[in-house]
Protein 1
Amino acid sequence: MFKNTRIVITGAAGALGQATAKQARELGAHVIGVDIVDAQELPNTDHYIRLDLMDREATLACFKSMGAIDALVNIAGGFAMGSEASDPADEQWHWMFRINVDTMRNATMGAVPGFVAQGRGAIVNIGALGALSGQAAMSAYCCAKSSVMKLTESLSEELKRKGINVNAVLPSIIDTPPNRAGMPDADFSQWVKPEQLAQVICFLASDAASAVHGALLPVKGLV
């Protein structure tokens, strides 16, 4: 599926990033992992770049130095809850937008010029099923992920006639160690496995999804 394909995965050090990198490599891709983790190399990647994706100048310079790539998977992001929508404190709000929206926008800005020049490319973003509606004590996260989803649709409309596919997956709860630790009494068998979500991401990043534009694809497991 990914023979002679170079894929950039942001957030490559996390559970979903690792699962996606592993799946992409097994399908033949050359995987460039990007994350803020301080390491010389990263499992399941062919090349690892340590980068603060919230730094726009550094991100644009990094992508310019990569050469031609075929797909960008924007996994970098995070989750937080607790603040109420009426809470005057801005810390959580700003943080959710920085790590979920700014990282995606900066990486996309870096990748799109190359995609346009070569007349092809794919971008896969990570939305959230829960952000389809507002949730109590999760306003910052829901608004940030809603922005990712609307940006996905807008980018698709702007880029689809230039040979570039832009889509997003909307997972429910992903079965990761932090989520298990945070919800120890939950039925983990109902959650989406990172490997399952990675399969959908790789499909959307591949030529097999060339007719799919602006999709917000729920991947909800049994929740």
Protein 2
Amino acid sequence: MFRIIVEVPSPLIKKPECSITEEEISRRLTLAFTSAEQSAELEFPALLQFATGAPKPAAVLIPLLRSDGEWQLLFTRRNAALPEHSGQVSFPGGRADPGDESPVQTALRETHEEIGLHPNDVRVLGQMRPYRTVTNYLVTPVVGAIPWPYPLRPAQDEVSRIFTIPLSWLAEEANYEEQFRELPQPHDPARVIYYKPYDGEILWGASARMTINLIRLLKS
């Protein structure tokens, strides 16, 4: 006689990324932002030897939404014709304009331009440590909760697709790994995070690192 064994998931209390409230997310972001070192996180240790000159200020929105009873993150796939980071999975956002008064304004303005999400519909929960990329952008991640479902309108010249990934899936260590990216000698290879494919999309690089940073903050 065969016996069917059903694996029961761990209780949600062991996965705070599933059940955590907006208020608690905001509290943790505020605490981390005010207590942590504010110098930028580098995409890899030898970055400053590759990216010369002052970095270009930029910001992205990390959109949190509730769907199917849990938190999910919203991502975009960049248009393959774009000159930088073409075809990559990313958070909505971009370079700061001279008139932007803060990274929050940059993130909300760029998100509205890229996917049609109105700034008034975003509940900003906080910011994370700036991240300096190999293309010499100083990116500030802004975390915000958004209503769902929402009538998004992607800018066709910038965004090829909009999709979501459950935060619980992103938090599973079996779903991602660090790989090494070769750099010119004498520099050591850089560590790069790659996720397994999800719904045909591969999250990696700077956006994957920001995702992991958020998850670690929510688990702390």
Protein 3
Amino acid sequence: MKETTVHNCEIIRDLLPGYAEQLLSRSGMQAVRDHLDRCPDCQKIHEQMQKEVLETTPSLEDRRALDGFRKIRRRTRHLKLLAAGTLILMLSGVLCGFLMLFVIGKPAGTSWIDFASCSYDEETDSLTIQGHAGNLNIQKVLWEEDDSENTLINVLVYETEALPFTAETHDFTITIPDIKGRDVCLACPNYDRTRIYSWRDDHYELIEQMEEAIRREIDTFDPERNILYCYPYIYDKDGRKWLTFHADRVTGENASWWYWGDRIVTDGDLEPTGYEIWVSLSEPRQILFYDYRNGEWVGDPDDMDMTRTNES
């Protein structure tokens, strides 16, 4: 009988945690309760377990204080993260402002730039530009091809503030390669452009020689009615470089035409004849004729009728 009682006590003591948490079945809870009524030893163990639970379980006030502390800690952590993010944004803004103001810069307006000279090298086809900006600190000078005009080069001068205790730079020099047949503009950006160099204007004597050769080649060319306009682009064909001329005709009774700067002005109507005339840059000079209405080359210049327009 004594061994049965000890065995039952071991079982009951294993069930005491579940009994304290009321996790046992109804019959299990009743069995433990009946045993505690009969067994003083197990009852003492149960009382000691309850005492330990009460000592380790915080009171309602303690739990409220703990919950409040946890909320404050979470709020403090959020505030720290917010402050760190704000500080990072502020530092990023300061760094970006510093880079833009002292390192990267911005394109200077064309009215602030004075050009000292533009020098074209006939051997290398490069253009060297020297300029000055008396009221600006020049950071860098770049050139780029225009997005809409393939014969145009844009030069951009970037200005920055000078760093403390450093000297300002007001002069610049830039060399642009392969400028033959092209024009150069100072740009800030594309909507603020000032033309500073034109290859055609710089080689006007060469253009005039080519135009005179064309007039001699075409018997029907009438200088009073026919106009030659040199297109600002150089083509490669058959291993040679060529300039192209558009042939236009003035129509209308007693109509005339003249140049206004680099523009053609007429008191009549200006209509294309439908021909392109190609002239080689290298000697001996060669002249080709292209009818862009049908996409064919004209073999004999006598077949070109300069008295007719494209529409007629």
Protein 4
Amino acid sequence: MTSRQTPLPSRFGPATTAREALRGLDLHGRVAVVTGGAAGLGLETVRALAEAGAEVVVAARDLEKAHGALAGLAGGGMRVEAAPMDLLDPASIEAFARAFLATGRPLHMLINNAGIMATPLQRGARGYESQFAANHLGHFQLTARLWPALRRAGQAGGARVVALSSRAHQRAGVDFDDPHFHSRPYDRWLAYAQAKSANALFAVALDRRGEGEGIRAFAVHPGLILTDLGRHMTEEDRRAAGLGPEDGPGTVPAGRSVREGGEFKTTEQGAATAVWCATSPQLAGLGGVYCQDCDVAPVLPPGAPGTIGVRPHAIDPDAAERLWALSEQLTGVRLEG
């Protein structure tokens, strides 16, 4: 376990917005790729980075929808473009990466934002459980294929990779014996927790490989935000979370906002930690850590109550290396020079 997993502390907190996290930073000349950047947290992440001057490429499953969502940003003079990519389709990941590398651009920020949550059991062509396949393996493949562009930026001043995890990681680690639920009964929330632990472990292993190249990696819990990510939640799930029919994507449950001492954030607040990890000078010399509320999160020991912090199983370097080896085996992909 890394001793770096300790709050800085930063000057920010749970109510910090993405714009506030970027205040004073000039990102002109910087290039970012944001997966799932056409809606929810991803769209707010793209908006904040582009407003600060970055050139942003959005990897989107539905290109027509992405063009519609991003039209206002491009029309406002910001440098934003979209390209097709489906995290459950290895061929589309390969095509996206090839097209980006063909431009010769360095990649200063890769924000692996897209994901699915609590879906019914689905498997791709290779038989992999969809939440593990999309949330982790798809991003693993994308990162490896974009490695030459990340190295180019890393050697010229630094690059960062941000993996969106979740406090859901606290429920379960990666089951290395049966990650795809071939033998054990499928539990959609357990599968989500496994995928989010994988996101955090990915950042640990990637940072170990990237530090010498000027590439640092971070895992992020964005907070509780109502977005389309929750479209597979059942009525029972919503009742358990205390959500009513009026609590839809883009809203904050009445009386439960972080500004009122609650847990729910706006999308602007939810995007803050990801852009902070991608850009903040406060993180110079750090990497491989799990962050929330625009700070490095504390370690939450096994069995200890609480929701603020990261469980040891999600930052365990041995588990991270085991996951890396498994991911290479499952995808047939390795870091490219």
